[in-house]
């Protein structure tokens, strides 16, 4: 299981480098299923791993001019508020055992994994839909002023999702940048990585407790593997067909989400 977890961590970094999204979608299940971590701890540790890998990728993209720092900052500031709300208000308020109608009982861990799988499903459809000819970034670049309120609201939403399920939010950020702000896909990926890095590392900083320090050596190993995959992904991204890559990732994400929902369903029923 450990070897499979390490290999999967490298693959996670590669996917994050290729399309600027999907790191946490794989990291949380890797930590939960392959390394046996509790769902709440997995979402916290995922933030560090993905944030570190995304930070390296963002520096590479920024150096190459493939990032819009201004829009990134507009996303990041309200995202911090969303992360704080999720990690310090929403998650602590959820009881350890929840009773639903029809005799369904859920503990906090399966609830988080179920919500995470639902978020993954939306991610998958967003990736697949982004290849629609009417949704491509080939449209003319946006020249009118940015809608700061819309960007801020999107940042708040992404931040809350980041805080709750430990997902960096790239699957929401990239469609917003490409479809709403008419970014090129390369600029969207670079900007997304910068936002993911800031959101994830902030979320980890406000969530980490001394009791989790024993997992630090494992986090460092996984992070190094993720960074290695990130560098490989960045290298491959310029050589691969974006349309087929995103569709393939979307269907893969959908399959993983379905597997998690099936597994959690078996645990409940």
Describe the structure.
It is built from ten helices and two strands, in the order H-H-H-H-E-E-H-H-H-H-H-H. With 269 residues, the chain is mainly α. The protein has one domain (2-268). Residues 136-141 have low confidence and may be disordered. It is found in: Cell membrane; Membrane. The chain crosses the membrane at residues 12-34, 40-60, 72-90, 148-181, 187-206, 218-236, 248-266. It is a multi-pass membrane protein. Belongs to the 4-toluene sulfonate uptake permease (TSUP) (TC 2.A.102) family.
User: Largest beta sheet, briefly?
Assistant: 2 strands, antiparallel
Radius of gyration: 18 Å
Helix content: over 70%
Domain unit count: 1
Secondary-structure-derived class: mainly alpha
Low-confidence stretches: 136-141
Secondary structure tally, helices: 10
Terminus-to-terminus distance: 26 Å
Organism: Leptospira langatensis
Family: Belongs to the 4-toluene sulfonate uptake permease (TSUP) (TC 2.A.102) family.
Protein name: Probable membrane transporter protein
Transmembrane segments: 12-34, 40-60, 72-90, 148-181, 187-206, 218-236, 248-266
């Amino acid at each position: 299981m450990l070897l499979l977890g390490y290999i999967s961590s490298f693959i996670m970094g590669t996917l994050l480098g290729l399309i600027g999204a999907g790191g946490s979608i794989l990291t949380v299940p890797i930590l939960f299923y392959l390394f046996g971590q509790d769902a709440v701890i997995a979402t916290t540790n995922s933030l560090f791993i993905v944030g570190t890998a995304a930070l390296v990728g963002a520096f590479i993209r920024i150096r190459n001019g493939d990032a819009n720092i201004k829009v990134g900052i507009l996303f990041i500031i309200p995202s911090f508020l969303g992360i704080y709300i999720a990690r310090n208000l929403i998650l602590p308020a959820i009881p350890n055992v929840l009773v639903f109608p029809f005799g369904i009982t859920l503990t906090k861990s399966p609830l988080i994994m179920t919500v995470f799988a639902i978020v993954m499903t939306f991610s998958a459809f967003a990736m697949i839909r982004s290849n629609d000819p009417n949704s491509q970034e080939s449209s003319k670049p946006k020249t009118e002023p940015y809608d700061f309120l819309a960007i801020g609201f999107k940042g708040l939403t992404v931040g809350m999702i980041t805080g709750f399920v430990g997902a960096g939010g790239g699957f929401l950020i990239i469609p917003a940048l490409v479809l709403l702000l008419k970014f090129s896909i390369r600029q969207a990926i670079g900007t997304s990585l910068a936002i993911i890095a800031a959101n994830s590392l902030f979320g980890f900083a406000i969530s980490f407790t001394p009791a989790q320090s024993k997992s630090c050596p494992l986090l460092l190993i996984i992070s190094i593997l993720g960074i290695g995959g990130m560098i490989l992904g960045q290298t491959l991204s310029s050589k691969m067909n974006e349309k087929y890559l995103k569709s393939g990732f979307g269907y893969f994400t959908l399959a993983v989400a379905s597997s998690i929902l099936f597994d959690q369903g078996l645990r409940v029923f």
